[in-house]
Specification:
Helix content: 10-25%
CATH topology of the largest domain: Quinone Oxidoreductase, Chain A, domain 1
CATH superfamily of the largest domain: Medium-chain alcohol dehydrogenases, catalytic domain
Order of helices and strands: EEEHEEEHEEEHHEHEHEEHEHEHEHE
Structural class: alpha/beta
Bound molecules: NADP nicotinamide-adenine-dinucleotide phosphate, zinc ion
Radius of gyration: 20 Å
Largest sheet: 7 strands, mixed
Number of helices: 10
Number of domains: 2
Oligomer: single chain
Strand content: 25-35%
Mean pLDDT: 98
């Protein structure tokens, strides 16, 4: 065991505060990583505050991790000390079930070890995330990060990047396809950049007028303020695909109406409260309502390589660890352009 430092929530109501805990010694196939940056995902806030009803404490959040490899186990082949490394939302899975075999570890049929607020494969050792000094992860779940990139802008790709890349690919965002992105936060701004890089025509659907001027720079062809009278009616039947990143209850029927025949509305936003779906917006136009959860490990590597090639990195505001609670309040107010990235050197 080695001592790690981090910030943890002790319950759903208290602010995050300094916390000391143990990390395991790296086993033969493990990689020990000194964490450099960790993004703040809205999922961190949902879980710290137990909004999904699945939280365990103490909780060290953080699943958008970039760091430097410090030590590796004897059988590790892909990493050596000094390499850059990324860790996303998972640190292990059963590796044997049909989902794992298909590279869909996030849908492991036995047990996904989420990076925090989860357990290792023994089902009892708690996992602690990236708001911390270092982490030990099985080589198989560690991603390669290309040198020379601004790492604070790479870290949030490990969740915001893959969560939007995966459904964009699956639902064939590309030339000749019209894609809308609902909600321009951490996930949404990456969905816009990635869909544009894939060659799609991108429309931003946002409730924040102040984000309008950024839309073109992010790669969107059009910005639509959802609250403006008649703005959505004008877009009826227009899109092949909508990526919906909204983190709270909202009207999905209105979104379904914007789809072409057989178009797909893909929810990635994880509203803690159920959404109401009418039958008619689905059956008229044979439309599809789908969901998507992060992406598998191989696809996450593919996304990192794509982003390095296309220079589609996150827009971030770097913060010190001690400012994390203030940052949470700002995320909730929608006051972030577009991701906070914690500099762990300030821990
Ligand atoms: P975020 O940065 O807070 O962005 C969410 C955006 O949704 C906001 O910027 C805002 O965009 C819009 N929004 C917020 N409250 C709203 C409301 N009440 N009604 C309508 N729109 C609202 O959050 P994030 O980190 O991108 O995460 C978004 C959601 O995805 C969260 O629920 C998170 O837990 C979930 N998530 C899911 C996965 C997955 O695998 N499926 C992975 C990561 C995160 P505008 O100002 O542009 O309207
Ligand atoms: Zn996340
Ligand atoms: Zn499995």
């Amino acid at each position: 065991m080695s001592q790690a430092r981090g910030y943890a929530a002790q319950d759903a109501k208290s602010p995050l505060a300094p916390f000391r805990f143990a990390r395991r010694q790296p086993g033969a196939r493990d990689v020990h990583i000194r964490i450099l940056y960790c993004g703040i995902c809205h999922s961190d806030i949902h879980q710290v505050r137990d909004e999904w009803g699945s939280s365990t404490y103490p909780m060290v959040p953080g699943h958008e991790i970039v760091g430097e490899v410090t030590r590796v186990g004897a059988q590790v082949r892909r990493f050596k000390a000094g390499d850059l490394a990324g860790v996303g939302c998972m640190v292990d899975s059963c590796r044997a079930c049909p989902s794992c075999q298909a590279g869909l570890e996030q849908h492991c049929q036995k047990h996904v070890s989420f990076t925090y607020n989860g357990t290792e494969q023994d089902l009892k050792t708690p996992t602690f995330g990236g708001y911390s000094s270092d982490i030990v992860v099985a080589e198989r779940f560690v991603l390669k990060v290309e040198p020379g990139l601004p790492l604070e802008r790479v870290a949030p790709l490990l969740c915001a990047g893959i969560t939007t890349y995966s459904p964009l690919k699956r639902w064939k965002a590309g030339p000749g396809r019209r894609v809308a992105v609902r909600g321009v936060g951490g996930l949404g701004h990456m969905a816009v950049k990635l869909a544009a890089a894939m060659g799609a025509e991108v429309t931003v659907l946002s409730g924040s007028k102040s984000k309008g001027p950024d839309a073109k720079r992010l790669g969107a062809h059009e910005f639509v303020l959802t609250s403006r009278d008649g703005a959505l009616a004008r877009l009826a039947g227009r899109f092949d695909l909508i990526i919906d990143t909204v983190c709270a209850p909202h009207d999905v029927n209105e979104m379904l109406g914007l789809l072409k025949v057989e178009g797909a509305l893909v929810l990635v936003g994880a509203s803690p409260k159920p959404l109401e779906v009418g039958a008619f917006p689905l059956i008229v136009g044979r439309r599809i309502l789908a969901g998507s959860l992060i992406g598998g490990i191989a696809e996450t590597q593919e996304m990192l390589d794509f982003c390095a090639r296309h220079k589609t990195l996150c827009d971030v505001e770097v913060i010190a660890m001690k400012d994390v609670n203030k940052a949470y309040e700002r995320v909730i107010r929608g006051d972030v352009r577009y991701r906070f990235s914690i500099d762990l050197a300030t821990l």
